[in-house]
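Q: what sequence does this backbone want?
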């Protein structure tokens, strides 16, 4: 009896000490409050619905879209396309990281080989605080032998000074394939569904030999999209390695019988073009940039003991069109009118106004970002200048079977897939397109491994605030 009384008193003390509201349902106490931190250079797009699809006749008779009412959750969007200087930050980060890794490999004192739980880290990575916490300063006189492999061999240099070999600027990144993780069935062959054999948590063994039932298509680098048995949740983590340097030769390859050598030589690196939209970036490079941008932000927050994770990504095409319309119903163009000119007859976007005449809109090639007026939501260049990658794969009939709640469709193309499976949606038209392609509802595509002189991109970040209709702004206009 005394033992029972003691246990009762102990339970009472524990419950009182936890302060759970005297038995009332109060939720878990001492949770850190959530606040909205407006991201720099991004515009808040509130939630809403709109009629997705063309608002004019299909002059190309492409029949790739029909009108459909959809609803979109709020998000943040870059107010301009990613510029050369912003993308250069990514390139320099990859360059410096490779250098640090090479130097750290020569001295294990600077490497982290185990995590906080004593588990092996493979491959090891640089202990930045021990290394000095500073970026490597590059100049022509760097003579560290370990870094020589990052430079072009002497016989390939245009000048006598050392030059970084851009072919070696490779970025290793990871992403989680949530689509495969969410599937409750397996496929027969590549595309046919065979059975409802599943990934059932209730049937998992509850001892140390936990296992998953099912398999996964592995898209990681060096894999040919083969099926592998799902061992644990890490099986859904995909790995890729991609060269991050833009294809500066795209200016010549896109226009075979045309003189574009000055753009090829100077557009990406010259300071005169710092605030022009980056081009020559493939869909896969744009996705890698988004993942790096996520890591950059979250890594800084963790370093400052802030654990609110944010996620940057490419916009879906439904998000892109919703943002381009700027809240204006049935708007043919982002400015809301039916014409590509204002009331004075002046062109208000950078495109090809007349056959063979690129000049009347004030541009020739891409213009500096934010050169023209923004739409109603403060987004610049949603029509013309450069077309923009979205996250979606292109299918002519996608509008017929995608949901009306945040419509989305993407397909991770296998290396041996036909080119038709590697098509990604681009939106907005460019400096070399006619007016039809700069309309809000016009959709077209390019291949995910192509880099073009007329395609750039911008990122979005999903909104995680309290009020889905209102938020601050981190405006940035050049």
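A:
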């Amino acid at each position: 009896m005394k033992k029972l009384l003691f246990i009762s008193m102990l339970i009472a003390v524990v419950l009182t000490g936890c302060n759970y509201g005297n038995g009332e349902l109060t939720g878990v106490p001492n949770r850190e409050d959530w606040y909205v931190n407006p991201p720099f250079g991004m515009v808040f797009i509130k939630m809403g619905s709109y009629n997705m699809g063309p608002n004019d006749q299909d002059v190309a008779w492409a029949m790739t879209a029909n009108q459909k009412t959809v609803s979109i959750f709020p998000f943040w969007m870059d107010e301009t396309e990613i510029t050369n200087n912003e993308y250069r930050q990514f390139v320099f980060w990859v360059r410096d990281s490779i250098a640090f890794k090479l130097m750290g490999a020569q001295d294990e004192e600077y490497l982290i080989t185990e995590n906080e739980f004593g588990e092996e880290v493979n491959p090891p990575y640089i202990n930045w605080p021990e290394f000095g916490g500073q970026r490597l300063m590059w100049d022509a006189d760097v003579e560290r032998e370990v870094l020589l492999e990052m430079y072009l061999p002497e016989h390939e240099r245009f000048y006598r000074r050392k030059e970084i070999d851009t072919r070696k600027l490779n970025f290793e990144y990871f992403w989680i394939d949530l689509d495969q993780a969410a599937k409750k069935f397996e496929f027969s062959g590549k595309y046919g569904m065979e059975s409802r054999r599943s990934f059932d948590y209730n049937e998992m063994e509850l001892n140390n030999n936990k296992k998953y039932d099912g398999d996964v298509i592995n898209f990681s680098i060096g894999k040919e999209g083969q099926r592998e048995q799902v061992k644990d949740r890490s099986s859904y983590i995909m790995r890729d390695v991609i060269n991050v340097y833009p294809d500066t030769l795209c200016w010549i390859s896109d226009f075979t019988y045309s003189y574009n050598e000055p753009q090829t030589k100077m557009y990406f690196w010259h300071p005169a073009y710092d605030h022009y939209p980056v081009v020559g970036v493939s869909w896969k490079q744009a996705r890698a940039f988004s993942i790096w941008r996520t890591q950059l932000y979250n890594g800084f927050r963790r370093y400052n003991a802030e654990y609110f994770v944010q996620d940057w990504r490419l916009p879906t095409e439904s998000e892109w069109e919703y943002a381009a319309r700027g809240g204006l119903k049935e708007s043919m163009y982002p400015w809301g009118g039916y014409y590509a000119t204002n009331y004075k007859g002046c062109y208000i976007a950078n495109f090809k106004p007349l056959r063979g005449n690129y000049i009347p809109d004030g541009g020739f090639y891409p213009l500096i970002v934010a050169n023209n007026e923004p739409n109603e939501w403060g987004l610049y260049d949603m029509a013309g200048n450069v077309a923009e990658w979205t996250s979606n794969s292109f299918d002519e009939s996608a509008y017929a079977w995608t949901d009306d709640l945040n419509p989305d469709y993407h397909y991770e193309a296998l290396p041996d897939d036909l080119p038709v499976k590697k098509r990604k949606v681009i939106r907005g038209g460019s400096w070399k397109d006619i007016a039809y392609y700069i309309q809000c509802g016009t959709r077209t595509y390019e291949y995910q491994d192509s880099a073009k002189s007329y395609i750039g991109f911008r990122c979005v970040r999903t909104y995680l605030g309290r009020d889905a209709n209102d938020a601050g702004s981190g405006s940035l206009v050049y």
